[in-house]
Amino acid sequence: MTTGAVATPAPRYRSRSRLQHLTVQSAPLLLALIILAGMVALYVGLFFRQLSRFPGMFEWTSVVNTSMPLVFTAVGQSVVVLTRGLDLSVGGMMDLTNGFAAVHMHAGAGSMLGWSLVVLLIGAAGGAINGVLVAYARLQPILVTLASLSIYQGLAIKVLPEPGGSIPLGYTNILANPNGPTGLVFVGVIIAFWFIFRRTRFGVGVFAIGNDEEAARAHGTPVRMVKIGAYMVSGVFAACGGLFFAATTTAGDATSGDVFILTSIAAVVLGGISFFGGRGSAIGTVAGAFILTLLTNVLFFANIDPLYQSFFQGLFLVVAVLLGTLIRRVVRLR
Amino acid sequence: MESELSTPIPAIEGVDVSRSFGGVRALHEASFSADFGEVHALVGENGAGKSTMIKILSGVLRPDAGTIRIRGEDVDFRNPHDARALGVGTVFQELTLMPWMTVAENLFLRHEPRGRTRLIRRRELVDRAHDHFEHLGIQGIDPRELPAALTLAQRQVIEVARALLRDPEILFLDEPTSALAEQEAEWLFGLVRSLRARGTAVIFTSHRWSEVANLADRITIFRNGERVDTRDSLTEGEAVTLMTGRTIDRMYPERPALPVGAETVLDVRDLQGEHVNGVSFALRKGEILGIGGLAGQGQRDLFMTLFGARKSSGGEIRVDGRARRIRKPSDAIKLGLGIALVPEDRKTEGLMLPMSVRDNLTLAVLGRVAVYGVLNPGAEHEHVRRAVERLQIRTTRPTVQEVGTLSGGNQQKVLLGRWLLAQSDVLLFYDITRGVDVGTKHDIYELMMELVREGKSLLFYSSETEEVARLCHRVLVMREGRVAAELKGENTDAEAIVAAAVREFAA
Amino acid sequence: MSAIVASLTPDRRRILFALGAAVLVFAVGDVVHSGFASPSSVKAILVIASFVGYVAAGQTFVILVGGIDLSVPWVLNGAAILFVTTSVGRDDRAIPAVLLTLGLGVLTGLVNGVGIAYLAVPAVVMTLGMNGIMEGLTLGLSKGLTCNSCAAYAPKAVQDVIQKNVFGIPGDLLLWLGIAVLITFVLSATTYGRRVYAIGNNDTAAFLAGINVRLVIVSLYVLSGVFAALGGIVLVAYGGQATLGMGDPYLFQSIAAAVIGGVAILGGRGHYLGTLAGSVTLVALVSVLLAENMPDWGRDVVYGVVILGILLLYGREKQHV
Q1: Is C268–B352 a contact, with Cβ atoms under 8 angstroms apart?
Q2: Contact, C179 vs C54, CB < 8 A?
Q3: Quick check: is B369 in a domain?
């Protein structure tokens, strides 16, 4: 920092206020929060119209508990999408882990804790396999995770051929407390995770790779290790998703995770993370997950046939992307 | 008392470095060295090997053969990071700012300030960026901005700032002033001089002779992948002769005079579009019209908008006297326009490298070599033969040979061949001699002259101002999406064009 | 021999390998289970492979331009249900039903294509969303497949076309062969095919050469929709009823078949003949394993491992310079 003062100063350029920067760069996240607020309002309104009262503790607890599996899986997906990748195997990982938990977990702190750790390790291992194939073998993420999805789905059916098994009550009380929305504590944990993630070399590396992988490499980012790490994060979070799912349903089902492939991507996109990587916030993804869960409730209270649920999820996904693109284009043209 | 026998150990050297790209030789046993406390200019034409040498010496590329030494010790760079660790800083021509990270984040990438918790202190990023800018005398670039909101010149300034953050003892600057106006360029020169005073080795490349003459203590000339000579000083004429191997008069062919009373083939009136802010000009039959100006002033946008590759939001384009709507490239092609764009580093915007020469050549005339959509191999072959012959494209079996395996010069010929086959009357040539060897360049110049003799018209842009000066009848200098000046006749030389380009214009 | 192989273009070499792999699987299968390579067994496997082959044809088209169609499962499923409910087993309704069903494929492909090409929605997202949309519509409109005509079979006339032997070869295989020839011709010998490859290799350059890139992309997704719908028709024409989830296995298999056949996932290279060979290899391989009494779950695992194996062999990205 000692180049000394230069004789000729460079010319001036215009500058903008701090608030302007914040809004411009966080526009997609703000949009997600606005949509979430709108969704909450819609839910409350339709609920009231149907039942002549506002949703109470039971309803909100149910919303939170039902959302948690998607929240976790989608946040994991976010990290991968930020590197310009994709993880289609999250569905299979959730299948596998919720089945595992249902089969093996017994009452007792030791069993619950121990098997939770085992499940998380499975998630990490699965993610590592994905990561190595993408980073070292340089295979396309969509192909790798499509293949590993198939593998994890197969293994899941092996572990739990028929829906069943059971989750100890104590576990459900911790993760999916039926008496109050304590699940929000875990949301807080995720927000803390995100805060820390963005301030680590690993996190910066993830964003850098999504921006411009070659340039990141030229700057010394250990691209391969970061990619493996990203897929491992996705695997671990999907495993958490599976655990929360098992806790909420108190049993296991080896095919129940498949729907999360679409919804995790939808939550990521809704939350404002660009599919091309490099920008966005997982906090938006959390909002996106809640939006999608509320959507199911909204459809219910609007008396729409539940068979049409996928239709609306699919439609929402496409509309969300279009909105996001529109927002970015408008913001850029100011 | 200094002994005459002691020579300082060079700061950085490349000794007998060779490097090829897919069979094309970029460097052939080339050597280069720079000393501490000197400003060393590396000159040569596009494709001479200077960029490749710089990339090798800064760790971006690995040499096929040869040695790199820093302070006399052999080193082996696996990546630019290794080079940086040894005190080498580089500012490349292709800017590498992360588009979705703020200026501050970009500045400190991989070197972010961390707190006791080992977590990055994000707020400090902005403060430190401010400090650094102030220190260097850069004013008014907000570190919280995204690169997309900045001009090319500002981004170039930031890249320089980033390189200087690490206090490099060896600094490479590849075309550092291509986008800078006079005031910014002066600032950079001041920086370079103070770095020299501190003992830094500064190596830079430039196409502007005035800069080279002004700043450089020593000048090294490259040609065709080899070092030709290193001198303390030389005239521009000598430099050109060394760079091209010919005297300047024989490098460029005789420009055919513009026929008197030639009709206007392309009449552009107040064209508006993205980064095009009201361009007007008339291109006459048989004319070569040059487009000049600093980098990033809308030249490329102008070409793309004319061709219909970008939306125009106002103004008129008149072909043969009538206003036409050009909303997409096929509209332009039907009107007799053709466009040839320079290949970018990683992907070319003209050619499909894995496809055959034939496929690439006939791409714009598929309708003419097919019957009801079914391709006629005989007709195709005939067209291909004509193009290969006319342009002397070196290819063994054009039907199967992948264009990617051809040399840069031959690739460019294939691209030009496509538009010859399309029988375009107005050709938009954008930096088509980039990355092309001297021999092919000469061929391309000759071709351009032939084309105008046949009555075609050309719009020509080149990053080498010398070419624009020598080849064009007139030159339009662009600034911020507008035509700021027009130069014609005998007064047009490279210096004049550059001077017009850097002059500050009132807003 | 090796000289001949070495002189082929990489594309042709991959097709050769895929064909060789198919032959190899049959040979090995015959060793493990004698009779595996008998004419009747081969025929049966080829028929099953044809189902994959139809869907994979559409997938090949979009992959050639670097896209992908994740909506095939429910376009197929929806088409199958649409077909049986509109034809309700009546021969006189057969042709209109076929046209209507293929029309469904056109419609979904059109929506996909417009979203991807004109609205800049990433292919993964658009087709994934479309899959959900089709799933919802199909489930909703058929009331979970409990509607009156949902359990209908395909009209006898259609079944005959697909199942009956002509000179000892099932009609379905003749259809597949005809389609293969047509697709190969279109891709290799027409201006349309040339444009498709150009776009797949460099869409910017193709645009600047005057090709209407967006329109071509839309047409490719339309083709993908049509072939997915065709797959639905053929599946029920093979004597079955429509079921829920019948399209799910075909997503993975259609992509795998193309990849095995040497179609580059980033676009620009590959031929349908390769996909055809890939379909056969894939189905033959699974049949061998099924004959080994491998349980359902094992098949999924094997699918995944096989695909990864093939990808490692020749699915890698180009190394950065």
Answers
A1: yes
A2: yes
A3: yes
Q: Which helix (H) or strand (E) holds B231?
A: strand B226-231
Residue C278 in contact with residue C256, Cβ under 8 Å? yes
Any A CB within 8 A of B505 CB: no
Verify whether the Cβ–Cβ distance C198 to B330 is below 8 Å: no
Which of C301, C306, C294 is closest to C33 using CA atoms? Answer: C294
User: CA–CA separation, B466 vs B497, rounded Å?
Assistant: 9
Q: In what order do the strands lie in the sheet with B264-273?
A: B276-284, B264-273, B312-319, B322-324
Closest by CA position to B496, among listed B478, B463, B469: B469
Chain A nearest CA to C301, separation (Å): 4
Residues in chain A: 334
Strand bridging mode B201-205 / B39-43: parallel
DSSP 3-state of B3: coil
The complex's ipTM?
Answer: 0.89
Q: Measure the CA–CA gap between A125 and A231, rounded to whole angstroms.
A: 10
Which pair of tokens denotes residue A211?
């921006």
Q: B113 and B121 in contact (C-beta within 8 Å)?
A: yes
**Do B411 and B431 belong together in one domain?**
no
Domain locations in chain A? 58-261+273-282
Q: Please tell me the predicted confidence (pLDDT) of residue A1.
A: 31
Question: Same domain for B100 and B228?
Answer: yes
Q: If DSSP codes are grouped into helix, strand and coil, which group holds residue B396?
A: coil
Indicate whether B120 and B216 sit together in one domain.
yes
Closest CA of chain A from C317, distance in Å:
6
d(CA B318, CA B335): 10
DSSP for B325-370 reads: ---SHHHHHHTTEEEEE---SSS-SS--TTSBHHHHHGGGGGGGGE
Task: Find out if CATH 1.10.3470 is the number for domain C11-314.
Answer: yes
pLDDT for B224-264, tens place per residue? 888 889 988 888 878 878 887 776 667 788 888 877 788 88
Per residue in B157-168, pLDDT (tens digit) is 999 999 999 899
Identify the domain containing residue B293 by its residue range.
252-256+263-336+424-507
> How much is the average pLDDT of B19-44?
88
Share of chain A above pLDDT 90, in %: 64
Q: Which pLDDT score is estimated for B431?
A: 86
Amino acid at A294: L
Q: Output the CA–CA distances (angstroms, integers) from residue C226 to A66, C54, C114, C267, in the order listed.
A: 38, 10, 15, 20
Nearest CA in chain A to B151: A13
CA distance A334 to A203: 30
Check: CB of residue B135 under 8 Å from CB of residue B124: no
